[in-house]
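Holo model, tetrahydrodeoxyuridine. Inputs:
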Amino acid sequence: MDFSQENPLPCILAAAVAGCAERHMETEMTLLAAATAVRERAYAPYSRFKVGAAIRSTSGVVHVGCNVENVAYPEGTCAEAGAIAAMIAAGDARIAEVCVIADSPDPVPPCGGCRQKIAEFADQDVRVVLCTTDGAQKVMTVAELLPGVFTAAHMDRT
Ligand code: THU
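Output:
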């Protein structure tokens, strides 16, 4: 697979869908490659902090998202939210693995809101791979990212 071509994203995603997902290492490489590629498309003129996110759904398809900022700052959206929206729009329902990447000193953690958004569609043991563009990685589970998560079960009396 040639990731060096000018627009590698379609190639990366095609490879992901085509079956690289069968092997764990390859899956992780593919998710990282997809998150790295989509990060380049981030619209972040205000923070200048570009973030890319890639989700492998339980059906094996890779969905990507990047942060999209707005001059009305609170209207911006995170990379993880974009990837989740793409997953749902594509007809997938559940997250098998997440990869997030940014040019940060330490592996970039999803913000609080994105932790809750990920938890909506992922089991507690799902891996979230936090990455820097320098190559550092930290792997956490959804449970570790959001202990005490609010779930539908908390509304059982309504
Ligand atoms: N950002 C994300 O896209 N994901 C995160 O989990 C952390 C923050 C974006 C939002 C905003 O566009 C920029 O990074 C700075 O906060």
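The CA atoms of residues 47 and 69 lie 8 Å apart. The chain has a mean pLDDT of 89.
Archived with the compound record.
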